[in-house]
Specification:
Elements lengths: L1 E4 L2 E6 L3 E4 L4 E4 L6 H7 L9 H14 L4 E4 L10 H11 L5 E5 L8 H6 L2 E4 L2 E3 L3 E3 L13 E4 L4 E6 L5 E10 L2 E3 L10 E2 L7 E6 L2 E4 L1
Parallel strand pairs: 4-5, 5-6, 6-7, 9-10, 10-13, 11-14
Antiparallel strand pairs: 1-2, 2-3, 3-4, 8-9, 11-12, 12-13, 12-15, 15-16
Length: about 210
């Protein structure tokens, strides 16, 4: 879905990613790589997500849209490095023409030098031409006037009421107070209900499309 927020043209993608055409940039938040292995190491049995499918999803969009820069909006890895690190390393090295940047999140405890060694820059935030401020945690009312804040961290989900009193929780893009919060990219993250405010905008992911609710 193509939208314009704070005067910035954006594309909300059903693959749970954001494309910013003016900067040829692809953004995704809260991948939480290594989470399954982290829990299994602690004796908690959880299924391993299809990481190959997730890597291919990103790579396909990078090649299709000729992306120049991929931005991870925090919580790229759930904890310390494990077997998923090697898969991520191979993924990065397989796209040598693309620059990768990680906006540090609360779960990103791997040393900055570790990311730099495989070609991923780590920063605290990114500002694009004083128009877009990209952070891990949403700023909402703290967003500077006239600026669009793009963030992650929340794993937003929208409760959609169906017939027979059924309710489904859908991953969504949530726009509130000049802040666009992205859905979590990782499939092992869970969703946080964001409630409903008539002043906000909710763009839910329904299969292979994004729909404004």
């Amino acid at each position: 879905m193509k939208v314009t927020l704070q005067g910035i043209p954006l594309e909300l993608l059903p693959q749970r990613m954001l494309y910013i055409p003016d900067y040829h940039m692809l953004c995704l938040a809260d991948w939480h790589l290594g989470k399954a292995a982290h829990f299994r190491k602690s004796g908690i049995p959880v299924p391993q997500p299809n990481l190959e499918k997730e890597f291919q999803s990103v790579k396909h969009l990078v090649e299709k849209r000729k992306i120049r820069r991929v931005l991870f909006l925090g919580d790229l890895f759930h904890s310390s490095s494990n077997n998923d690190w090697k898969l991520f390393d191979d993924f990065i090295r397989g796209l040598p023409e693309v620059s990768f940047t990680l906006v540090k999140g609360n779960h990103d405890i791997i040393e900055r030098t570790g990311f730099e060694q495989i070609g991923v820059e780590m920063v605290d935030e990114i500002v694009l031409d004083d128009r877009i401020l990209l952070t891990h945690e949403p700023l909402h009312l703290k967003t500077p006037p006239g600026v669009l804040n793009v963030a992650g961290h929340i794993h937003p989900g929208y409760r959609l009421a169906l017939r027979a009193r059924q309710v489904v929780l859908l991953p969504c893009f949530h726009y509130s107070c000049s802040t666009l919060t992205l859905p979590a990219f990782g499939n092992l993250t869970g969703l946080h209900p964001v409630g409903h405010n008539e002043q906000d905008e909710y763009y839910c992911i329904l299969g292979d499309e994004v729909v404004r609710i």
